[in-house]
Amino acid sequence: YWDSHRHRLAPEVAEKLTAARASGTMRALSGRLLKINFDQDKIDVHYKPRGFMESKVESTQYVVNCTGPCADPRQTSSDLMTQLFNDNLVKLDSLALGIDVTADCAVISASGKASDNLFYIGPWLKARYWEATAVPDLRVIAKNLSRRLTEDS
Q1: Which of 92, 142, 144 is nearest to 121 (CA)?
Q2: Whole-model pTM above 0.85?
Q3: pLDDT of 36-59, one tens digit each?
Q4: What is the mean pLDDT of the chain?
Q5: Which residues contact 122 (CB under 8 A, 6 or more apart)?
Q6: Mean per-residue pLDDT for 115-134?
Q7: Cα 134-65-60 angle, rounded to 5 deg
Q8: Alpha helices in 24-152 (DSSP H)
Q9: Which three-class secondary structure state does DSSP give residue 108?
Q10: pLDDT of 7 over the 70 cut
């Protein structure tokens, strides 16, 4: 809920979305996405609307899923993350919101050792940097990491 209020669109993009919603060419649905069935000329979206117990099905031509990245890096479909976990090169942070990193974003292995050459910036930094999904905060994190990496070389 916080992310949808904290991270706003550029005004010109917001105007276009508002116009699309007003004209009926776009609808935004809030809830938990359960499953999507693809047919030849439609897509059936099964979801549980926010605040309701029963699921619903909506048929449409297009779907834009705006849920963001998988909150648990162990559950992602990324082959890279699967390999990093299997090789014990990364571990979950203490809050299970992402991966454990040092203050300068060095990835911490399952044994607790900070990597000298593997770093991470992105949404799985929430335990250390709650605002790690906001562009202004990402800029600062990236700037600090680039300084550290260029000073070491």
Answers
A1: 142
A2: no
A3: 888 888 889 899 998 999 999 999
A4: 83
A5: 69, 132, 133, 138
A6: 80
A7: 150
A8: 79-86, 135-152
A9: strand
A10: no
CB 73 within 8 A of CB 82: no
Residue with tokens 């991270």: 7
Strand, helix or coil for residue 15: helix
Which residues sit opposite 49 in a β-bridge? 31
Phi and psi of 117, rounded to 5°?
A: -140, 10
How many CB atoms neighbour CB 98 within 10 A? 23
Mention every residue, 6+ apart, whose C-beta is less than 8 A from residue 4: none
- Residue 12, CA distances (Å) to 17, 111, 149 in order: 9, 48, 36
The amino acid that residue 140 corresponds to is: V
Q: Which helix (H) or strand (E) holds 34?
A: strand 31-38
DSSP 99: B
pLDDT at 127 over 80: no
Q: Give the number of other CB atoms < 10 A from CB of residue 33.
A: 14
CA distance 147 to 104: 10
CA proximity to 112, closest of 88, 141, 128: 88
pLDDT at 136 over 90: no
For residue 39, give both structure tokens.
């047919």
